[in-house]
Amino acid sequence: MFPVAMTYTLEISDDLRERLESHLEEDETYEEFITELVAMYETEGAFLQEGYSE
After folding, report:
1. Which of 8, 25, 30, 42 is most exposed, with the fewest beta carbons within 10 Å of its own?
2. Are the beta carbons of 36 and 28 closer than 8 angstroms?
């Protein structure tokens, strides 16, 4: 039996949508971008640590 993917609707503010769009690469979807963010968070434990940024 194959796992079934559930689809959810997430409501975000216009400001957050604009911020997300400013970080999308050409032809990248919101889902792809968020998947990448979550993977980074899971790998590193946090996006930014106090006193540290890239």
Report:
1. 8
2. no
